[in-house]
Write a structure and sequence with these properties.
Blueprint lengths: L15 H4 L13 H4 L15 E12 L2 H24 L28 H6 L1 E13 L3 E5 L6 H9 L8 E9 L2 E2 L2 H7 E4 L11 H12 L6 H11 L20 H12 L6 E5 L7 H16 L3 E5 L5 H4 L4 E5 L5 E6 L3 H7 L10 H9 L18 H10 L2 H37 L18 H4 L16 H11 L8 E4 L7 E5 L2 E5 L8 E4 L4 E3 L16 H18 L1 H21 L11 H42 L5 H30 L6 H28 L3 H17 L22 H14 L3 E4 L7 E4 H4 L10 H25 L9
Parallel strand pairs: 3-8, 3-9, 6-7, 7-8
Antiparallel strand pairs: 1-2, 1-4, 4-5, 9-10, 11-14, 12-13, 14-15, 16-17
Helix pairs in contact: 7-8, 7-9, 9-10, 18-21, 19-20, 19-21, 20-21, 20-22, 20-23, 20-24, 21-22, 21-26, 22-23, 22-24, 22-26, 24-26
Length: 832
Amino acid sequence: MAESDASSIPLSSPSSKLDSPDGRARHAPSPPDALSSFGVGAPRASSVAGVTLSWSDLTYTLLLPAAERRAAARAAAARDAAAGTAAEAGDSPPASGGGGGGGEPPDGGAVGVDGLDAAEARAGVRHVLRGVSGRVGSGQVLAIMGPSGCGKTTLLNLLAGRVAKARTHVAGGVVRVDGGRREPGAFRRLAAYVAQDDVLFSELTVREHIAFAAGLRVASGADVAPTTAALLAELRLTHVADSRVGSPLVRGVSGGERKRTAIAVELVAAPPLVFLDEPTSALDAANALVVADRLAALAAGGRAVVTTIHQPRSDIFDRFDLLLLLARGGSVAYWGPAADVVTYFAGLSLPCPERVNPADFIIDLVSVRPPGAVGAPGLPSLGSSAATAALPRRAGTADAAALAAAEVAAAAAAADLTLILKAARVQQLALAANPDGAASPTMATTEVTMSPTAAALADGDGVLSPGGGAGLGAWAAMGRLLGRPAAGSAVKRRVRTGAAAATTTGAGGGVPAPRAGSSSPTVTLSRHRVRSEASDDVSAEEPDILVPWGRQFGTLLRRSALLNVRERTFNRSRLVQALFVSSFVGITFYMAGASRTGSLDDVVIVGNVLGMVIVSQLMTATTGLSLSFPAERAMVLRERANGSYGVSAYILSKTLAESARNAVFSLLYSIIVYFLLGLKPSVVNFGLFAATLLATSLMGESVGLVTATAVSSVKAVAVLMPMVVCLPLLYSGILLPPSDTPVFFRWAFKVSYVSYAFAAVLKNQFNGLLFERPPFSFSAGVMTGEQALGVWQVNTLSVGACVGVVCAQALALRLVAYAVLRQRGPRFDVSV
């Protein structure tokens, strides 16, 4: 990691890349042969070990939910019926541009229904990505752009190895690192991933966030401070290093500084690959530009940066070296130097107007939908005689003319998209055939070198020339090459996931084919499901943890303790509970425990008060942790995905930190209640009373932790908590003795943790006491405290044994939480 301030790194000016036809920043040195032959520009000066990431023919198919499958099937049936009616009436089908990206040809008729083509609608699936190929090297910033829902984040997650493991999708293709198949665990140690939502602790400062992350991921403890200082300088965070990050409810650093803090946390291990999902979202223009400058500086330090971004301003767009533009449906519309995208589309007779942001222009080009698609928003097709006849009845002549003009414009935009996707598909096929070779083409090269098989898809005019386009024969050849079935046939496709796609030779060229013996899954698209033959073999390998367990535990313990001290709202609530609730209880039942009259009412009152004390401690601890942990859960999942620490170190450190805080509040509560109620004036008895309340509080936190780890939703936790707490309370002996409970439920008293805590405080108070019965009572004389305990029918264990049972149950629940966290940890699909 470079320790110099990032301000010393020269950045490209807004005009530097536009003046450079190969997309290089002017300060960059001449590229080495391996990268200059790539044809997408040279990397910047390197201070981090270089790496090259390439990918070929990435696909992602998603099973639609049942409701969407039924709606898509109905829309497809309605479209087929409309097409049949139009054919009988002699109308030509509406022209369409394949707005789904990779759908059927314009003459084929089967085009998008809400982004689905007819085959997808009938099969109940959605192709999120379709055959995406590309490459990025050290010193380059690659921007993945496209309209909302085009698959940008899905592609980023595939490249970063962060696609969640599930049976509702099938991913295919190959991702390589330096030309070799990546190993998932090792790859995630090489790659930093910055999510769109910043997962940070609002109570910690910027410096503390970076320092704790470095302590968990830097191999040598002596490097933690230098790494922290270097990242503060590199991300321009030195001036806010000691400011708390804050949250929407707590004032902290600005949005741009918060985003750069999230980036710095991921860079502590000096990864050569950096993936970012919408890093400028929710930022104003100035902060977004600062973040873009920092990304360019990271690339200048030798990293390969891949980011998704929706629609950047022009000076932010100029910071990008490479551009991968996706159209609706996940097909590539452009891949190559970002500086050449305007020239490229001008060559397709689609010039960018003056004074228009190129990013806005290209997004508009690929955001159109096919006109007249059933179920899609837009206008009815003018090819329909019914629609044309209805125009004068629905609107005036002026409105009808405007409607017709809009329809013509929509059809023209769809036709433009058809041309764009055809040209891009030819380039993507050639790139997929040779992703790591010296002749890998880019969209912006004027003379595209491709295999004869891929070149055969272009017609005589050439798909890249203005006014040119692949004819129907070329489209059919492309369909045969891709294995696209004829309309109406079953959809079945082989997705490549081998370490390297082999090539089938012929006529001096080749296209990717699955390697023999590879685990390439067969994607079967049926009406009801998506099945992958390799899905059962998909592992969720986590990266190896480089830091020793002792340092993991120490770092996490310091962080947990610091967070506990700074959680002001929770601490104030616990303090109010300890001071005021205990005071109100003690004053209301002042010196009730000192009464020795022996009346049943007095004995019952003391027992009920002690039961309420147990319940209040239990509810406070359970509710507090169960509602606060879901926010921390996101941080735990992110750090575990990075290989920062093991679950055992986290659980033990959190248990010790929470126990220390609980001990303070439980002791304060115990002191006030014990002496105001006038309980036994004995140091030993007070110690046992305080130990029982502390064990109850720890038990409550254990219950809350298990519930919060098993259920990620805060609302679901809030719904489950009453059941989790009330059932043990029901069988505790506070409300009714075991003899009044149905026989088949009496076993519950032996497992209820509340019953043991209640028994402990009762025995601690009544054992050894003597009560004088009133002279006119049913049985006058002396009553022992042991006889008084018969009212509640408590167990026969000693006070210490009861406290020990509660502690053992708390420990058992912590082990359950450990198992749940391990089971519900980050699980990624590593088939690609």
